[in-house]
Amino acid sequence: MSTTAHLPTAPLRARAEIDLAALRANVRALRAHAPGAALMAVVKSEAYGHGAVPCARAAVAAGATWLGTATPEEALVLRASGAVPADVRILCWLWTPGGPWREAVEAGIDVSLSGMWALREVTAAARLAGAPARVQLKADTGLGRNGCPPGRDWEELVGAALRAEREGLVRITGLWSHFACADEPGHPSVAAQLALFREMVAYAEDRGARPEVRHIANSPATLTLPEAHFDLVRPGIALYGVSPSPELGTPADFGLRPVMTLSASLALVKQVPGGHGVSYGHHYTTPGETTLGLVPLGYADGIPRHASGAGPVLIGGKWRTVAGRVAMDQFVVDLGGDEPAPGEQAVLFGPGDRGEPTAEDWAQAAGTIAYEIVTRIGTRVPRVYVNEDPHEGARPAHGDAGR
Ligand SMILES: *Cc1c(COP(=O)(O)O)cnc(C)c1O
């Protein structure tokens, strides 16, 4: 990911400012929501667009003892970066046949298995590496996505994993699952998944599994469902200060603060007559004589084209709206006669407490969820890290647990 650290005042075309103090505070708030559990910071997909290495480092400084990624490649890059101490565990869960099993075993990464093919590949890798693989068995308790189904499939996977453990090829470090509807408290699937998870865990433990961690809680379950915390919680979006769902509450309701502020410098301000078409397709026509501002960000930067005519932007203390279509690299706002200087800051979203819109506002404008808004901000937008703790790189895993 393109980063420009320590240049917070450089006149960039656009920037995504990442407030690492907010991230650390969010980690501490989440640990307070789940005081009995360890915290895995989910940093997949470049920490939801915020930058995996700096965010992993900050999360660990604030007390995360595990990191989670989707792909093994993400996990290997994190481990190789040396960003976090070697005793910080990294779990990755989205494997396909032929994946880098041996590299993962040698790097001491915990790997998730959802089926027999994966157990066969990881035990072969463990033989080649001459070291046991750390594996976590994933149960499909009702999400209907990844994970091993209950019944015969689970019995077969658990039995084979325990045999491999007795042969010294694997160590079963975790039993885990994932919710379908944790962001809808009271949804009947939540209780059903919890009950089945307990059953599937009990089956494996009765057969002799001794996992270090049992876990099922994503952000919404971490925030609202204490009975789902078990040994470890796995928040992603909440780390970045975004609410998992507006129906659940605002970030502030949960003691969270948005980490990313996306802004750009106006590239042009000009006067135009009434009746002037704006951007491709002329889906906006100026209602009268006015001024237009050009914002140099487009769908190639992750600004949703679905927010054409709808996305909000703070310029000179006023909310403006995307006029016409979002193009690949730029969009236009109607400034209603105001004439800010070129270079004036246009803030697309941020924490919201300086009057700017939030990622949730953009999600509503584009008919999507705030996860997609922050995650899709492209690599052409430099991340500018602020409030980095100077000791973060060198800090031991549990360095500021008491702060
Ligand atoms: C992405 C992900 C998470 C984190 O989910 P949030 O809703 O962002 O908290 C947790 N577990 C798994 C398996 C995931 O894929």
Alpha carbon gap, first and last residue: 30 Å
What number of structural domains do the residues give?
Answer: 2
- The CATH superfamily of the largest domain turns out to be Alanine racemase
* Strands, count: 19
Q: Unreliable segments (pLDDT under 50, ≥5 consecutive)?
A: 394-403
Q: Provide the succession of SSEs.
A: EHEHHEHEHEHEHEHEHEEEEEEEEEEHHE
Radius of gyration from the CA trace? 23 Å
Can you identify the CATH class of the largest domain?
Answer: Alpha Beta
Largest sheet: 9 strands, mixed
- Structure annotation, total helices: 11
What is the level-2 CATH architecture name of the largest domain? Alpha-Beta Barrel
Structural category is alpha/beta
Taking all residues together, what is the mean pLDDT?
Answer: 95
Q: Which topology of the largest domain does CATH recognise?
A: TIM Barrel
Give the amount of beta strand, in percent.
Answer: 15-25%
The unique ligands bound to this protein are: pyridoxal-5'-phosphate
